[in-house]
Specification:
By secondary structure, the chain is α/β, with parallel strands linked by helices. It has helices at 3-27, 32-41, and strands spanning 48-49, 54-55, 60-62, 67-69, 74-75, 80-82, 89-92, 97-98, 103-114, 119-120, 125-133, 138-139, 144-147, 149-150, 164-165, 169-171, 176-177, 182-183, 188-189, 194-195, 200-201, 209-212, 217-221, 237-238. A hairpin with a 4-residue loop joins β22 (209-212) and β23 (217-221). It starts with a helix and ends with a strand.
Length: 239
């Protein structure tokens, strides 16, 4: 290894250690001083850091240069956001709220985007290489959104050594995902849909649907407004 290459790696490693130490210091400050220091220090560290962002103590960020936080985002205590992979990016659009203990992680070179005015409840986990959540969604506590799977085809090789597969998950705008829902890789949930608490979503759900169960299945269609008359064109019906 050349001297210049070694110095480059040393500089990169030193910067990572400095950023980690700075985050550890800033996140542990519970006083008004901590709020003030985070307000002025964080914009220098992140890919983007909008105005009026509120970050509680004990929030952990990994690779903040790949994390983009738009204005008026609120991140509660003990949230962890890991932007792993050289080209990964995590985007929180304006007025997103991440409640206590939310865990967000990209894998290789992934993209995770959360649309504006979306709320993600306590201890919900988002993990994978492609997760897109629309605007004005409500995602309740203890949900699991996993846009990845372990490979296990070879019975003679340890599962942990067989790698992963990635398809991606999309949750369109104005959806309500109930508490404890699990959404598996390759699924798309159409706009305006509701998924009942405790459901396991293994297949895509059309727009304006109500789905429940393990595995989740559509049991009703939501009523939709007729744009011409302003009246409802379809009442709640059994699928």
């Amino acid at each position: 290894m050349s001297v210049s290459r070694f110095l480059y790696k040393l500089k990169k490693f030193s910067r990572r250690i400095f950023v980690h130490a700075l985050f550890a210091l800033l996140s542990s400050l519970h006083s008004y001083l901590g709020i003030l220091l985070r307000k002025y220090a964080y914009p220098c560290i992140f890919g983007e850091f909008g105005a009026h962002v509120r970050i509680a103590p004990l929030v952990e960020f990994v690779n903040p240069l790949g994390i983009y936080i738009e204005p008026c985002v609120k991140i509660m205590q003990s949230v962890r956001i890991q932007c792993l992979g050289a080209a990964s990016r995590i985007v929180l659009h304006s007025q997103v709220v991440l409640d206590k203990g939310v865990d967000i992680k990209t894998h290789r070179s992934g993209r995770i985007k959360v649309g504006s005015n979306t709320y993600i409840g306590p201890f919900t986990c988002l993990s994978g290489d492609s997760i897109f959540i629309g605007h004005d969604c409500l995602i309740a506590a203890h949900c699991s959104i996993y846009a990845n799977n372990h490979q296990f085809a070879d019975p003679h090789t340890l599962i942990r050594l067989q790698g992963h597969s990635y398809k991606g998950i999309t949750i369109e705008s104005n959806c309500w995902i109930g508490a404890g829902v699990t959404i598996l890789d390759g699924v798309s949930i159409g706009k305006g849909s509701v998924v009942g608490a405790g459901s396991v979503v293994t297949k895509s759900i059309p727009s304006f649907s109500v789905a429940v169960g393990v595995p989740a299945r559509v049991i009703k269609r939501r009523k939709r407004r007729n744009a011409n008359s302003g009246s409802f064109r379809r009442s709640l019906t059994t699928a």
